[in-house]
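for ur thesis appendix - tRNA (guanine-N(7)-)-methyltransferase. copy paste whatever u need, i formatted it the way the template wanted (i think)
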Amino acid sequence: MTDQPSSDTRKLMFYDPTEHRIRSFVTRAGRLSTAQARSIETLGPQFCIPYTKAPIALDEAFGRSAPTIFEIGFGMGETSAKIAALMPEKNFIGVEVHTPGVGSLLKLIGEQELQNLRLIQHDAVEVLTHMIAPLSLAGAHVFFPDPWHKARHNKRRLLQAPLVQLLASRIAPGGYLHCATDWQEYAEQMLAVLGAEPGLKNTADGYAPRPAYRPVTKFENRGVKLGHGVWDVVFEKV
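the 3d part is after this line
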């Protein structure tokens, strides 16, 4: 996900063989700062949408009608806030399971007076399945999911056919799915899995140039300076 300072704090997303589906997180503890807790208490009621097994009325949730972008796993929220500020004409729904990340992004929402962000603290797969209506999204972002780089763990990666198919079913024709990773092997898997989904077509000949709306995070910038690669994959819903 976005804004991870080190590999051990990446958002964990994997296939759960006990439930025969992709899960978008592994529960883990995290320290909640005073500022994050205060933001949850004061801003949560306005900007957080409770999980329910019913589709969201997007116009009511945002108080307006606008194209909606869905993000899976926003980490500490810095990138999400920057993108939302850059595109005030669009609505953004960010899903994150870890409470410190939710508190951090709520804090940024308050500081920057952002009105076009709504957060859901829950498993992203269940949110997509039950709360997001088919063909209702203008786009989706999956930035820097955990690469599970050991071969025996590759099956735990989030971006596999079931989730890609689910995401594609929620994106309207002409919308997009944008994924990014700093692991080349995972980038190759992203290209293969998205390319195999009949409802999507690649917007580039292979990897895409980084779209201007996706800022370079501090973590990513450090990696680039060390010679590490970053790959963006952008597919369009047909």
